[in-house]
Each structure stands twice: as structure tokens, then as C-alpha cells.
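User: Some background: our group keeps a shared notebook of sequences we're curious about, and every so often someone picks one and asks for a predicted structure to add to the entry. Today it's my turn. The entry only has the sequence so far, pasted here. Could you supply the structure so I can complete it?
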Amino acid sequence: MTLTAGITKAGTGIEGISWNILGQTYVPKTLCESSFSWHATFPPGTFVPPHIHPTQDEFIYLFEGRLDLMLDGKDFIATAGDVIRLPMGLPHGIFNKQEQTVKCFFWVSPTRKLYDLFWAIHSMKEQKPEEVVALSARHEVMFLPPPAE
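Assistant: Of course. Here's the predicted structure to add to the notebook entry:
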């Protein structure tokens, strides 16, 4: 996975790839061993449940909308122009609780197994939560159990 020079044009991903991940659209923009980035569109009501990346730092830049975040057990709000920093090992969840679609740019360092995980989730016939959780664990993303009622 060596970085190649070039431009990933607006509105498209590497090799024209676009993934459906838990109701969101992820479009990969860069890929090499040290870093992986993607544009993400979160329709209203979509989210990524609380999870941990034990082997990666993750970052999110918001272009449009608002995200509600759970970072290490605390609630935060990010809006357009904000950068969210998620150090490896920090539990985090990402939620669009608004009526507006969120558009943002994610990147992780190093890439590890995340690119392969997105392909695997996208390729599932039905993205059942328990199957996504098990698949993610095999790709170094650990989902947290739901909070006790």
C-alpha cells in the first residue's frame, strides 16, 4: 500500500469506490500504509455506536452540519469547521441527531485494517449489528456494549 501521487477528484473516491456503512456513505480519498482518509455523509438519525480503535488515531473535519459525540464517556458537540481528535484507545461514538445531513472528512493513522473492514461491511448482504460488531473486532475496531438502562 504505497501512496501514489495524483488527485482524487471531488465527488468521487479512489477507483470510483463508494461504500454504504451503517446507513452512511463513505468515499475513500487517500490510502497508504501510514494513513487512510474518506469523505463521509451522515443522513439525519445515523450514527456510529461507541467503539475503540486500539491501533489508530482518528480525526474528523466537519464541512456541514452538527455531530453529537461521546468521547471517553463525556458528551460533546462539533459543528462546521471543527476538527475532532480521537486518540487511539479513546472510546468514542458519533451521532447525527439533527434534521440536517452531515458532511465530513475522516482520516486515521496508521491505516491498519480499517480499509478492509469498510469493504467487508459494505459487502454484507444485511448489516446486522451483531455481525458488524464481530467483523469489526477481527479488524481492530472494538464496539462497546450498550449502556445499561
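Suggested note for the entry: The first helix runs from residue 114 to 123. Helices lie at 114-123, 129-137.
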